dTDP-glucose 4,6-dehydratase
Amino acid sequence: EGQIPTWIVTGGAGFIGANLVHRIRREKKAKVVTFDLLTYAGNLANLDALSHDPDHLFVGGDIRDPKAVAELFLRHRPSGVLHLAAESHVDRSIESPGEFVATNVFGTFVLLDAALRYWEREGRPGDFRFLHVSTDEVYGSLSPSDPPFRETTPYAPNSPYAASKAASDHFVRAYHHTYGLPVVTTNCSNNYGPWQFPEKLIPTVILAALEGRPIPLYGDGENIRDWIYVEDHCEGVLAAFDRGRPGETYAIGAGNPRTNKELVLTLCEILDRLAPRPQGRIRDLITPVPDRPGHDRRYEIDAAKVRRELGWAPAHTFGEALEKTVRWYLEHRPWWEALRQRYDGSRQGTGRKGE
Ligand code: NAD
Ligand code: TDX
């Protein structure tokens, strides 16, 4: 037909989704339909630069709504789906786990079921892909001597968030095994970069420093996370979408494990250079707060399979991308100041509402 294909991106107005949508429109010959409910975490401003792009369309809607999702497939006839819509914040999942079951588990099921019906009606095209974006948190917590997570690591989710993502991964797997739907799942480590909602650690630290507020460090600060620049994650997602084998899972990580304390101190050092405070060193703002209940101690990814099978490798080094991220927040004050109405940044520690 000579027409370019249409890809549906769910959650495209969120942090990773927006980075992915921009990347697709920059680098791929595909139309994008962003399907997003615009919850507290979704933000149309993240897609502002595409407002005049004739090959991008925003559709507001809920992945938990079977009619809206069926309509989405019928109307846009996609050749692939990149599924990122989710409730994504561990602390919120501790406060209200039900929303995580509804969106991450039931919403993913609704999307899979609509994709299956559509795919069967189209004659089961072999090149259709349902790419499910998931997390390394499904594997649980590593002890200091454990080897990093791999695709074969047993699932052992510990937070309601991780449990809901694990359940969604299992439904994705079942739709391949039982019905043959061509699915691929990626399990990625902690992302950072532009448009990350300020409830997550890295933007929390940057904005607290810029506003002269306490920088909350949970527990002893010795928990380890494996950090990846969001652009590298998006490249991995697109590689898996393009070349991943149906039914396979791919663990994505850039090999940057850091304790929270190390990471926060590195950020403070970058901020002391780029946005010094006349009142003193930024590290003086670091404030220990009560630990997250059930806080996983250590995550780390062994990305040998994506490197070998998909030819993927991260293009950014940790120090440079972290500094680039700090600069992005410095240069996009209006973006995050507007979010202050939805999130005042004063929550410290976690636990239940009102604590
Ligand atoms: P985010 O919270 O920034 O964005 C989520 C988006 O989904 C928002 O735009 C929101 O409006 C939308 N959404 C929520 N509920 C919806 C619903 N019912 N219907 C339609 N849209 C809905 O999340 P993120 O950090 O960009 O994460 C994106 C995906 O990547 C998630 O599936 C998450 O589990 C996964 N992931 C995130 C990380 C990370 O470090 N942030 C790491 C690995 C995997
Ligand atoms: O203020 C804080 N202080 C602090 O010490 C916050 C917000 C976090 N932390 C700690 C908790 C974690 O050990 O920093 C670490 C990172 O916390 P988050 O940014 O909340 O991320 P995490 O819980 O590791 O989950 C993230 O990575 C995997 C994303 O939110 C998930 O969506 C993703 O799947």
Summary: Residues 97-121 form the longest helix (25 residues). Confidence is low (pLDDT under 50) at residues 348-355.
